[in-house]
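Problem 12. The chain below contains 137 residues. Write out its predicted structure in token notation.
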Amino acid sequence: MSKKTFTEKEIKKLSANKYVKSVSSKGITYTDDFKRLFIAEKETGKLAREIFEECGFDAEILGTERIRSASKRWKKAYMENGVAGLRDTRSGNSGRPRDRELTLEEKNACLEAQINLLKAENELLKKIRFAERRMKK
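Solution.
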């Protein structure tokens, strides 16, 4: 994260941009639409700073390091997971796990998955033992 902090005036200006999800004094969260747009523009050969400026961001407020690191982070996520890697998953994974009781169908599905995993492990171990015996002979 960048060491540059935003002033109240800069926060208001950044918040007005349609591609900003939220802004605090220490950080900025961009929309998923902006990230997809950024990657599409980047693949055409545009510079990261140009893309940010065309989308209404002031590069002086954000700072070159913040732009560079966002570009690098999104490019890596896109290369590894495609468009799904650009999604902000914090809202879906945050907080404590639910403590509700599972229904019988959910319990059954979990146990079946566990049984299938154990069967697959067992088969793999059998194959390994068989291969080891063949190697000794």
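Discussion. The longest strand covers residues 20-23. Students who got a different answer should revisit the alignment rule from Section 12.3.
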